[in-house]
Each structure stands twice: as structure tokens, then as C-alpha cells.
Amino acid sequence: MQDKKVGIVIPIYNVEKYLDECLQSVIDQTYTNLSIVLVNDGSNDNSLSIAKKYALQDERIIIIDKKNGGLSSARNTGIDFFANQYTLQFEKEEQELLKFQIINENYLDICSIYRKNTMLDKNFEIPQIDYIIFLDSD
User: Fold this and answer.
1) Transmembrane stretches, by residue range (predicted)?
2) Beta partners for residue 41, in sequence order
3) Whether the model pTM is above 0.70
């Protein structure tokens, strides 16, 4: 069975401080059947230059450069680009995400992955789960 392609949308707005770490984390994944869309949302720092550097090094990376419209606009632009079965969204706050695993049979079309220490269970304790996938409510 062929691995399913995963689309990753990374909205970018003035995140030069975090972008190298974020992009390197995505590129270093063991799951390699990825399309990585970087949506530059009108950054006025070096974020676009950093994105271009990575796009030249990895053919899976596509850059969309647009006028600033906010996070939701950047996400939607990235999501519109895809016709894939799954889409994962990263934000700069999720930069410490190091590994994720995609299971071929999944009923979700659009989801977000969060680090386990950002989530609490019903008893307000950190669950003993490595990574959690949620349907994105945006």
C-alpha cells in the first residue's frame, strides 16, 4: 500500500527567530511523503528569506507569498492549495514538536497536532500520550 501524502501548512508572519527550528523539525520527520506549504503573510523581517533558503534545499517545500491578512487567512490560503487527504497545521508556538506519526487509516481531513504538555485531561493532568491529533475548529 502506498503511503498517503500529508500536507503541512506553516503560516509565517515575522517568525525569523523560530522558523529555522520549525522547518528543520518538519524536514527531519521519518514520514517523508510530505508537501510543505509555507504561507508568508506579509512578513517584514527575514522570514521570507529563510523560507526561500529551505525551499531551495527541499523540493517538498512550496512558498506562497501574500499580503498580510492574519493567521486564519494564511491558514486558509495553505489549505486551499491542497487536494490531499490530510493536512497538519504548525504554528510557531508548536515549534518544539519533534516527531509525529501518521496512521494510514484516519477519518480526519484537517487536523492539528499539539505537544502532549499543552493538553490536559478532564482531571487537569497531562495525559500519558505522546502526540494528539485533533480536528481543527478554525
Assistant:
1) none
2) 66
3) no
